[in-house]
Amino acid sequence: MEKISAFFQSTILASTAIVIMNVIGSYVSAIGAGMACPDWPLCPFPDSFPVLMEFLHRVWGVFVVLTILLTVIRARRLEPLRGLKVVKALAQLSLLVVMIQVAMGAIVVFTVLRPEFVALHQLLAQITLAFQAVAAGLSWAEIAREAGAEKSS
After folding, report:
1. What span, in angstroms and rounded, lies between the C-alpha atoms of 55 and 115?
2. Mean pLDDT of the region 53-73
């Protein structure tokens, strides 16, 4: 149960990081700072508030990728015969989708905020969040099932 608990904690951490990232990204968009860092992935030293917010958006993106990577690593440690194939697949899919989203972030910058690419960038964020949230729910259900089985034995 320890490995599934660690996996669950990772999915919660990743989900929280994604929600925070969505808030930061929405704020960057709302204040018109999407092009405050005109290069990708580089950003000049934050010398103004818009540049600071865009810089924070990019740095937090690295944190999001790392939390999802931790989820994938912990998913690989789960026992394969316990019916956890779906959560393992969701973890791996979320890593794939977030990497595509990172590339889409570059495309957003290179195309100077074309609305369809901005929307796709946001959609990929929501898909990644959904994968992590479903993995969290399924792993929580497994923890509860195991706890119930332990009590009844």
Report:
1. 21
2. 96
